[in-house]
Design goal:
6 helices, alpha+beta, about 260 residues, 17-stranded mixed sheet
């Protein structure tokens, strides 16, 4: 089978979040998907199965688990489908573990149409400060489905933050999403830590912004944002909330293509 690597949420090579994409007639067994994802050793590998014109079934695997929703993997998959001329119009429809997902081509950008994921109750910040050994100023901690969003006082603190993955694994959550009000042109910035999924820090996380969009909508009283994920690679996301959906816009670049030989 053919396989590609794509830098998603990136305007130039070696930025954004790299994902592997492969198009299959039938999905391999899950244990084989995991082996392929581990061999690629990227935060996600997307497996795409054609269903009918413009509609595809998509599955995502980290090197150690299958996940329910992946933004940059979906962006990368749509980028390859458009690149290879496998879509009859400007919109791709995916079926997934998180329901229907849509990606629309708009000039050089691709726009993900994902479910908006509402944040939940406020959590006691003291326990997180203690477990993570934080010296930074914590504004709030909230439940975000199976993740936790932790807001810091300043973007400088977020950019300089150093966390031990072993401490994050002790938390009662899947991923830790750390955020702060933005600097420069950005409404907010974030970083995402997911050691439970085999990813100490994810470079740019579309699915996290389904939750961050709701969090900052409540705080900033607005429905559109320009966000930045402040990992070493970094990536920009334009966000628009429409009712119970969120639109995440970004660019993607093909970095490599080849053939899987086993």
């Amino acid at each position: 089978m053919k396989i590609w690597t794509v830098d998603a949420f990136a305007s130039e090579p070696y930025t954004g979040n790299p994902a592997a994409v492969t198009i299959v007639q039938e999905f391999p067994e899950d244990n084989i998907c995991l082996k392929i994802a581990a061999e690629m050793n990227l935060s996600e590998t997307a497996f795409v199965k054609p269903l009918k014109d413009g509609t595809f079934h998509i599955k995502w695997f980290t090197p150690i688990v299958e996940i329910k929703l992946c933004g940059h993997g979906t962006l990368s998959a749509a980028h390859i489908l458009f690149q290879e001329g496998l879509v009859p119009n400007d919109t791709v429809t995916f079926t997934s573990l998180s329901g229907p997902l849509y990606v629309t081509k708009s000039g050089e950008a691709l726009i993900l149409n994902f479910p908006l994921q509402e944040t939940g109750q406020t959590l006691p910040a003291e326990s997180f400060i203690e477990q993570l050994d934080l010296n930074e100023s914590v504004v709030a901690v909230v439940q975000a489905r199976d993740d936790v969003i932790l807001e810091l006082e300043s973007p400088q603190e977020l950019r300089q933050l150093v966390l031990d993955p072993k401490d994050i694994l002790k938390l009662d959550c899947r991923d830790l999403i750390v955020t702060a009000k933005g600097d420069g042109p950005y409404d907010f910035i974030s970083r995402v830590f997911a050691p439970s999924e085999g990813i100490d820090e994810d470079p740019v996380t579309g699915s996290a912004h389904c939750k961050l969009a709701h969090y900052w909508q409540k705080k900033l009283k607005k429905d559109s944002f320009f966000a930045y994920q402040a990992s070493k690679r970094g990536g920009e996301i334009h966000i628009t909330i429409q009712d119970d959906r969120v639109l995440l816009a970004g660019k993607a670049l093909t970095i490599m293509e080849g053939n899987w030989l086993v």
